[in-house]
């Protein structure tokens, strides 16, 4: 089932998410729905807070970029992609040279800005069977994981921008939070509930 993606302005996006117990009800279905939602919106990552659930879960699929022949992703680093579920992740280390890359977010449509992040990470997480893994990622996969990890920490990519950049996109962000944005996917707007 395709879920609505929560838009900028919703409190769930700026709240630190809680740990998921092994008996969390309907987790497999939720993970499947998140993948379906992400693919429908043409994303490469999606965190549970983006579907209005403040739990420590996110999914990543950069492997799909290798198979999209029709898209021009020539600005993406060439590397093997990953398709992974991350439950209760814990960032262990961030290393390597920091570099800027033009990021976007399904919760903040039509806004892209350069965000500087380290090129490599080490992360501990549980998979969908709650088996513990510790792995290192670099390049584009590390960037997507850092972006999604930020979501479960209540951090948006816009939080990494300079004060000047934030000021320049302030009106666009306000329009998104008011529901004054068109997307090819379903969205849920917090401010529309209070009208």
Main sheet attributes: strand count, strand direction, barrel closure: 5 strands, antiparallel
From the spread of the alpha carbons, the general shape counts as: globular
CATH architecture: Alpha-Beta Complex
Which oligomeric state applies? single chain
CATH fold name, please?
Peptide Deformylase
Q: What is the helix fraction of residues, given as a range?
A: 25-40%
**Radius of gyration (Å):** 16 Å
Characterization of this structure:
The protein has 195 residues and is α+β, with helices and mostly antiparallel strands. The protein has one domain (5-193): Alpha-Beta Complex (Peptide Deformylase). The protein is 26% helix and 31% strand. The chain has 5 helices and 7 strands; from the N terminus they run βαββαβββααβα. The protein has helices at residues 27-40, 64-67, 139-152, 163-177, 190-193, and strands at 5-6, 45-47, 57-61, 83-105, 108-126, 132-138, 187-188. It has a 5-stranded antiparallel sheet, with helices on both faces. Strands 1-7 form a two-stranded parallel sheet. Strand 4 and strand 5 form a beta hairpin. The protein is globular and about 45 Å long.
